[in-house]
Amino acid sequence: MEILSRMENNKAVVTVTGRMDAVSAPQYQEKLNEMIAGGTTAVVVDFDGLDYISSAGLRGILATAKALKVKGGQIRFANVKGTVKEVFEMSGFGSIFQVHDSVAAALAEIG
Fold this sequence. Notes:
By secondary structure, the chain is of the alpha/beta class. The protein has a single domain (about 1-110), classed as STAS domain (Transcription Regulator spoIIAA, 2-Layer Sandwich), CATH 3.30.750. Helices cover about 45% and strands about 30% of the residues. Strands 1-2-3-4-5 form a five-stranded mixed beta sheet. α1 links the parallel β2 (about 10-20) and β3. α1 (about 25-35) packs parallel to α2. It is globular.
């Protein structure tokens, strides 16, 4: 898994590619926890290049979302598709989190 991040209008855009599973999910959590600890409160996660997500990946998403909520922050997801979208829908994440068709749409909706 590869994680890239950039700031856009004081909002973090985190691009995740590859597989988010038991091996790589801690890397995702560590990266986002560092950003949150550094003061980031608005995060858009771009899953355009994410091919697979396991239950460990879903737990990582929940953990970082809770950490953001404690800081008064928000998280949005963009480009969730294919099997990752199926997992989001089956797990109920599609109704828990705001999912957008593009990073631009997610950025427009996040405070």
